[in-house]
Specification:
13 helices, alpha/beta, 17% strand, eight-stranded parallel β-barrel, TIM Barrel, homodimer
């Protein structure tokens, strides 16, 4: 999927919402756990079916599936396949934080682009150029590089100054020199919204995947004001506030209401 | 498994060899591809059975399994389970390069420590403390943090100077302050052997996982001279030179010969 297609979807749906799937059995509606052999798949499917028209992207957190071993991995492949088959217009992201030497990154690209139908994968930048380029060599497939993350540990290394410039800015700048850099996107936590203007100046044409709005405390208005470009260039992720809007039988309606509220806030910003 | 147990195995086997399992169908003996539904599992199992007495650790590169989707992931879980059941004395490493915010890293820990029987997992440090600590909270389980990798892209960020100190040294120093840091190990490429003395000075008591001897050009003697501590503190990985010593029907014998040669070089160094 190209950036142009994502932008068209944003205009069409009046939304730059990315639905995050982090299925946590402990927070899921209890009645789902009794009636099914595949409660995680069922839960994710029902949420996606309910809110897909309000989103332009879905981000699947692979850890929440891998935690359940082969069964979990099977659910991961199954939900990715279901989403791409039924809602091909959704930009499908594997939030997998992979990245390794070149010949190994090629295998991860095969895992997420061939064995599963993802459009993009999140990548840690520590190993540099040859760990990332294998994810960029295909038309319509994107690597989403960690730049500035929303967690506490972000402070440990991402702000280290080198020549008066923090590491995350070196990551942005350097990665723009890599082959097929036009297919790079970046993870920028919403809790770091005050850094978004600098980031946008460094990567004016790249989409930014922004987690941390809602549960983690980031402000949608700040993110939009500091981060939007002419093609919007933002995918704002919400996971918990939609998935766990209710743990009762009314959970699909509650998820719909939560997603609708976010989409309407986004529509207001887009139409200003 | 504790560091003490690993050291005892090193003395017992006169070896600090880590067998790397990066099963590549294109390089595997052709006759294995015809006769089996699970050639990757069969190949890995036969190699492990053949050389296990010469190794103290096995490092499984998860990408080479994930590339084949659910079937590949099933083989990953199956080979890990086989190794731990038959050779419990082998230190079993998932070379998975994971790492995410705390509640997600907890899930990856469950994936590799609970759903599969790994003793350790490799982790990218970019997201800092809370992305790593969930892998350190269990007795006998270890996180192996990327410090200085053997690939070309290592130059992009790992050598960035901050206060005259390269990033990889900040990673070593900072991570030693984290909770349960005694369970941290580090990845240091053998191609960077000239940096090993500095690294050893910063983390005198940590095991170092060293890939890159052999196919990638690192020298075992240099690695030992600069990197060994009183408990040896080294796990030197070899993948390709053992796995693909032959692509004919004699591949187990060829793998045995290649592993024996490495083990004997190690025995010489250990007994000097």
């Amino acid at each position: 999927m190209t950036k142009k297609t994502i932008f068209e979807q944003i205009k069409h749906k009046n939304s730059f919402l990315c639905l995050g799937l982090d299925p946590d059995v402990a927070k899921m509606p209890k009645h789902l756990l009794d009636g099914s052999d595949t409660p995680i798949y069922d839960f994710c499917k029902s949420i996606v079916d309910e809110v897909q028209h309000l989103c332009v992207a879905v981000k699947i957190n692979t850890a929440f599936f891998e935690a359940y071993g082969v069964d979990g991995y099977t659910s991961l492949a199954r939900i990715a396949t279901y989403i791409k088959a039924h809602y091909p217009e959704l930009f499908l992201i594997a939030d997998a934080k992979r990245g390794d030497i070149g010949n190994t990154s090629l295998r991860y690209a095969a895992a997420f682009y061939d064995a599963m139908p993802f459009d993009a994968i999140t990548i840690a930048p520590y190993m540099g150029k040859d760990s990332v380029e294998p994810f960029l060599s295909r038309q319509g497939k994107h690597a989403i590089l960690l730049a500035l993350t929303s967690n506490e540990g972000a402070a440990d290394f991402q702000f280290q100054l080198s020549a008066d410039t923090p590491l995350y800015q070196h990551v942005l700048r350097k990665s723009q020199e890599w082959k097929n850099a036009s297919r790079l996107m970046y993870v920028v936590g919403a809790t770091k919204a005050d850094h978004l203007s600098e980031i946008r100046a460094l990567v004016p044409n790249s989409f930014l995947l922004v987690p941390g709005v809602g549960a983690q405390g980031g402000s949608l208005l700040e993110v939009y004001k500091n981060g939007a470009n002419a093609q919007v260039g933002l995918l704002v992720n919400s996971s918990r506030s939609i998935l766990y809007a209710s743990d009762g039988k009314n959970y699909p309606a509650a998820a719909l209401a939560a997603a609708t509220e976010l989409q309407q806030q986004m529509a207001k910003l887009l139409n200003k």
